[in-house]
Amino acid sequence: MGKTTAEKIFDEHLVDEPFPGSKVLRLDVVMCHEITTPIAIADLMSRGKDRVFDNSKIKAVIDHVTPSKDSKTATQAKILRDWARRQGIKDFFDVGANGVCHALFPEKGFIRPGYTVIMGDSHTCTHGAFGAFAAGVGTTDLEVGILKGVCAFREPKTIRINLSGKIPKGVFAKDIILYVIGQLGVNGATDCVLEFRGPVVDGMTMDSRMTLSNMAIEAGGTSGICMPDMVTVDYLWPFIEKDYISKAAALEDFRKWWSDDDAVYEKVLDFDVSDLVPLVTYGYKPDLVKPVTELEGTIVDQVYVGSCTNGRLEDLRVAASILKGKKIAPNVRGILSPATPKVFQEAISEGIIDIFMEAGFCVTNPTCGACLGMSTGVLAEGEVCAATTNRNFAGRMGKGGMVHLMSPACSAATAIEGKIADPRKYLP
Amino acid sequence: MKRFGGPVLFLDRDDINTDEIIPARYLTEITKGDLKPYILEDLKLTGFDPKGPKTKEARVIVSRANFGCGSSREHAPWVLEVNGITAVIAESFARIFRQNMFNCGMAAIELPKDKIDKIFHYAECSDASIEIDIEGQQIIVKGSGSEEKFQLDMSPFDKALVMAGGWVDYADRNY
Ligand code: SF4
After folding, report:
1. Which of A125, A273, B83, B132 could form a disulfide with B4 if both were Cys (CB 3.0 to 4.6 A apart)?
2. Whether complex ipTM tops 0.90
């Protein structure tokens, strides 16, 4: 019987199966940020176990609130910083080099097909875009990961999502994943891995695949996995060229992680994207999605472009193509947070930052900031934000605030009109 | 082993998320105890008062489907724990929240919808309480003089974690 990618990764990393179906896995990468890690560090210290299992496999970043906004966030940052120094963690990213974890770590080449990855952050599923098993965990799992390099999971079931057809104008990876979440529901994939397959995924860049995988958790999924192909090899090549004689050899090696043709799935869902339209969420759950045409005209107070879902170069490019030569509406505050320093610099050299600023956007340093309502764009009670982020929970971007999730293109059109707008009329 | 059970807080809604259980603006606290006043502060549920006596007295939460969805923050189980709530009984949980509960030595108990419906009948009783017997794999629901027992179906690993007092102790002993 064939195996899925997730099953292959589980087999390869199995350390123990204390009870049937409960599997303890060896970890290849443990990622840490300043919100969920400090308590793990404090607990390890109080237990007299201030150690790490392997400092080369731990990656750490200060990203949620940075530069620190007050003494509490400064303390969190300091705890992480001091610990990284103490433990000799060389892949630690502080002010000046930091950016949103799930955009920064892939960019640094830390993720490889077949890896097991955990982080104290639910959107860790993003890294599955490389053909890895990457899962968000809580602080206790993270603590054990740091100390022992292992984590326990239930045997994964996989839901295969086949995406076919031709992506219509104005529709992007974000619209596709919002559609899939709308179909599955917010707990439609609990305890499952989502496997994104089909010609639509094959034709996507890594940036787009990361957008798909990023939101697997919004359907309850443990990880969102894409098959590692030549697109993956090309992206990773600068980091792996010493390991392989050619790209073809790398591809051949990556192929072993592909789900077998006769693998057994929990469910297989086929979606044709040809008739999709740009989608926007309403209400306070990410599975509440409607065609943009049904929400057009909804007044917004703020437009936010950024986050681990849509803060990468490709996202900024498409938003800029719509904003070019235009001004945002006077009722709107536009905020752009490029997800990483590299994205920021490339956006500067491509003239993208100019376009945003000419249009009237404020450009912040790379950070999560407003995405979780912590800094750089928190909403006031009763305010509405059009955002390229991944969560529209009540109060997510500020107490009493409301969030409409959408693609970068849709957010740019919305910024221009000051109300939710269809991006298709601005696209060639 | 710690005792599970006591007065019940009924939260009659699906998809109660971690941002509702503990909003992100309080994640800058670095001790669990500091989270205490903010329990369920942003919960959208008609008639619910996060600062009310029901929340204060509660030792067990009973809710519906997909409890604890959203963020991975273990601050969600912690804010319950520091408020004396060590068990949540629901139709289903989001994976990370459920794991966090067991990892902390707390109980996330899943029961089928019809049983949850039956337990919700006790929401009207002012003295509703639930006793949880992990070893015996059952819960006893009491209120207004009546009493009902429900069998639990907890995975052996989850049970082992609760008995060990959480994952750090368990892992430290075994790996
Ligand atoms: S950008 Fe938002 S969703 Fe992504 S890691 Fe940061 S806070 Fe979480």
Report:
1. B132
2. yes
